[in-house]
Protein: Phosphate-selective porin
Amino acid sequence: MTKTPFAAAAFALLASATASAASIDLYVDSQTQQLYSQPGPGRVKLGTFVPQDDKAATSAAPSAPAAASVPVAAKPATPAEKKWFDKLALRGYTQIRFNQELGGDAQELRSPGDRFIGENQSLGIRRARVILSGDVSEHLSIYIQPDFASTPAGSSTGNFAQLRDVYADLFFDKDHEYRIRAGQSKIPYGWENLQSSQNRLTLDRADALNSAVRDERDLAVIFYWEPKEIAGRFRDLVRSGLKGSGDYGVIGFGAYNGQGANRLEANDSLHTVAHVSYPFKFESGQYFEVGVDAYTGFFRSATGSATINGNTFTPTLAGRQRGPLDQRVSAHFIYYPQPFGLQGEWTVGSGPQLDTALQTVTSQSLKGGYLQAMYRIQSSHGDFVPFVKYQTFDGGSKFDTNAPRLQVDEVEAGLEWQIVPEIEVTTAYSYMDRTNVGSAPYRNQSGNLLRVQLQFNY
Structure:
């Protein structure tokens, strides 16, 4: 076998080094191609080498030909195994919101979705959330999210810490196609309810869907399933800036308390929910998602003294201990903005609502939804997304005292500017015609608002 001087020198150096060391660093002169075992000017490191058979290498040390039979290989560094707490990630976002009345009875407006709307309200911290999440193991992941900008009911001060999410996903397989989510989490009813306010384009969720699960969360045990490919689509719809709702499976069903987030169970009767949503991806790359959701249960609305048409009374509650029947079904579609987008949802059903004639909270019919159009413009100055949204609702506001009838007709037009991924500003004009469900006699008010929101992500 013919050997080049370069190879012979390499094996000779390696053989001589193995007599006293398990490995050796080799360097080559960039001009002469001479090999060295020490660094120096003009020498380029080839790598760290070890003989596969130390005994054979040592015995071959006296002569270069014997050393040629010793194979060498690079020894890759072995990374330290991560502990489960090293796999957790910390992130968050904050929203600062400003509302300015422009006319009509805007000062008298009240909205469950934004406590900074109304008289003597203007600037406030809408969200201040920190999220801790990650995979503990192949079969367990956790998600914990407190909000530091909450306001307890009836309080004149804000920015209290309150739990939003704390749940675990329990996986049955390596591909994570089957899982159970247990804890306080979002209830899969309504696509916009599932979409994070960090990603949502419009400033508030539509009342028709959000009145079903205010705060979008409850204590629940829910089963989710989706193929691995579809899970990837759900992730892409969020990461690519297309305002996806997140991963809540193609199919989901389970049970939850029904009284809302951070509220104790009040009637010893669980709600059940079912969810189906599928994101199609066309050959052009366009995404289109459709689905349906449904839930049923009994809900106990709080009751208190009210004065309506000169009569003061405290309503009774139909269904006594369990409360009135509470059930809905909804459908949704989302044609993602690539660059033009269109989305809509509609819900029908029945739920707790005050009957002023009978002075009783009974189960009554409800309906409502929204339609939203948007256009995504990507440029060197950031992403611009102009949008317009119309929403309507007629039904009981079950989470408010006495579950008064809520009537909403609202138009919002605005522009979101994502300057950089960490900073975005949304400016919108809103015309609202809605019932003040916060206090009797539950009158309708209408007015115009200028609304601005600054969001920073971290």
